[in-house]
Amino acid sequence: MLTDSxxxxxxxxxxxxxxxxxxxxxxxxxxxxxxxxxxxxxAGDKDVLIYPKPDHRPATFTVxxxxxxxxxxxxxxxxxxxxxxxxxxxxxxRGINRAGGPPIAWFKDPAGNILxxxxx
Length: 120
What we know:
Number of strands: 8
C-alpha cells in the first residue's frame, strides 16, 4: 500500500524562526517555510519537516545525521559558525567520537534536538 509513497521524517521545534536561521544560515541548508512549518530540502530529494510545538521537548536521540567526507573539516567549519559540539566520555576535545563505528560528532539545534555529522 505505501510502497511508492515518498515518505519523509519530521520533528518539532519550539521556535520556528530560530530553527529557520539555524538550518538555513548556520548549516547552509535549503529551507522553505509553509503554513508555519519548515521544510528542509536535503540532498537526494530528501525532505524533513520541522513543525512548531509550544510544549516541545527535545528528543533524547539523534534526529538527523549528516554524512560528510571529512569529519575534521566539517567540525571546524561548523564550530567557526558558532555550532557547539556535545562532549561525552568517548569524544575528543573537538567532540568527535572515534570509539566504534564511523567517526561522529553530535550537536544540537536551537530547540535542543540532537543532530550529527559522521564521516562516510
